Amino acid sequence: MNYIEIAIAANTELQETLIALLADIDYDGFEENEENLKAFIEEEKFNETDLASILQPYDLSYSKSVIQKQNWNELWESNFEPVIVDDFVGVRADFHQPITGVEHEIHITPKMSFGTGHHATTFSVMRLMKQVDFVNKTVFDFGTGTGILAILAAKLGAKEVLAVDNDDWCVENALENVSKNNCPNIEIAKVDNAFSTKRFDVVIANINKNIILDNLSFLADDIVKDGDIILSGLLKEDEADIIAATASIGWQHVCTLEKGAWIAMLLKH
Q1: Which domains does the chain have, with CATH numbers?
Q2: In the β-sheet with 138-142, what is the strand arrangement from edge to edge?
């Protein structure tokens, strides 16, 4: 599976908006710097017309290159730095030194940037997780990516975690990372939506606004009474719509964390 790399000359503020828009059309890796945004998508999913429709309103041009499958992990490793969320959790790869001064340490193989903790949404979700009691709780992680949030839930004392994604590579990477972190109580599954026959004490959905709203009825059935819900993959301007939609199913908004243009929300059923 080769990847397409798209390099877009855009300022840092606009990059946040572009990431949200591109994530909606299956781009699953991003590298941000002051000069440009690099976005990555599986070669078979790349659609030039869809890309042009996103960039045209901003009058942005781009360059395109192909990254061979065997070079993909090497690319991420070369750009991957440890992530430290306060004194709460540290995320590192095997080639980094152990992180000291944090309550929890997570080891991952950095095969994609969403889910490594670098992106504002994942970082903020981990911060919100510190406010939730996971001890002996059941957890549903919808859109698990690298499995990092499921792993953190397990380290925080969850007794059972179901982590799901619709992407084969995410499932493969999540399984690898779960094994690396010795979390036998995490089940990884490939699914197309948030439907589950089980009910959970905590639901986490770090995806995007459209997928969250499309799956809201399923998520409502997934959570037990008085359960905790963390939603992210959202921009600041999404907050009002998410609060209105979740209030209609009886969820209460507890708080919102902001990081750059992105937000993560904690709600209660």
Answers
A1: 3-75 (3.30.70.120), 128-268 (3.40.50.150)
A2: 186-190, 160-165, 138-142, 200-206, 223-235, 262-268, 252-259
